[in-house]
Amino acid sequence: METKSFPGTVDSLDSIREYAGQVANEVGLSKKPTYALKLAVDEIATNIILYGFERVGMEGTIEMSSEVVDGKLMLVIEDAAAPFDPLARELPNEEDLTQTLEEREIGGLGIFLTINGVDEFRYEFKDGKNRNIFVMNLE
Amino acid sequence: MEVTIKDFDEITILEVKGNIDSKTAPEFERNAKLATDKSEKIGLELSQVEFMSSAGLRVLLMIYRNIKAQNGRVVLIGVSEEIQDVMSTTGFINFFTIVETLDEALTVLKQA
Q1: What is the dihedral sign for C-alpha B58, A38, B87, B40?
Q2: CA closest to A109 among chain B residues
Q3: More confident residue, B61 or B112
Q4: C-beta atoms of A13 and B90 within 8 A
Q5: What phi and psi values does residue B56 have, to the nearest 5 degrees?
Q6: In total, how many domains does chain A have?
Q7: Is this structure's pTM higher than 0.90?
Q8: Cα–Cα dist B50/B106, whole Å
Q9: Residue A10: which domain range?
């Protein structure tokens, strides 16, 4: 499927989710996995935009591509911001997620939802770019 | 995304239409704060919200804390199955009352 490039700003989030939705549609994902993929993509793209670009005053783009390999959809987001591995930070655990909302720390929920929503999530830094890879099993 | 604030006596209904993401969450938060500042009984009508990211969960958390601090009550209305799934995964669902219609919400909030 074709590669698309989006300006690295929050104004692009609608189109970024739409791309994920179209790809999910083309490979026949059902409603719930499609939503989970859109959510995962939104969360990771948001981190890239807010922390990779905006916080350091950098202008950049978000490149999206996708392919089907061995019965799995691989959706890839690439950016040229500073290396950032979403998996390096500590995720909320069972205890955190059952805490009352008064006491709860809100950090890390986006990445938790990403990992929880896709069948596999991978990160690599390659050729000077962050590559976030979202894998969805096809039926 | 559009947010409309409607008052029903001492109850304030916050009606959201559209997607809640990092672009729109600040506007949602600003309106939610206006609502919780003037009322301790809040209904959040989400039946026209198709998508909500963790940025929206942060605003729900803020609403919950503001209302809890006033011993008030918050009810969510018409939450999609997908958003309920996200609230369930993150443990948020246990802290909110969810109803189907505005009328049900008004009944619950009047009794609160």
Answers
A1: positive
A2: B54
A3: B61
A4: no
A5: -75, -35
A6: 1
A7: yes
A8: 23
A9: 2-137
A19-44: pLDDT as tens digits:
999 999 999 999 999 999 999 999 99
Beta strands in chain B (DSSP E): 2-8, 11-17, 41-48, 73-77, 97-99
Domains of chain B, each with CATH number or no CATH: 1-8+20-80 (3.30.750.24)
Q: What is the identity of the amino acid at B109?
A: L
**Could you tell me if residue B85 is left (phi over 0), alpha (psi between -120 and 50 degrees) or otherwise beta?**
alpha
* CATH classification of the domain holding A74: 3.30.565.10
Reported confidence tier of residue A1, pLDDT bands at 50, 70, 90: low
Q: What is the interface pTM, i.e. ipTM, of the complex? A: 0.95
pLDDT tens, B10-22?
999 999 999 999 9
Looking at beta carbons, which residues of chain B come within 8 Å of A31? 82
- A9: nearest CA in chain B? B23
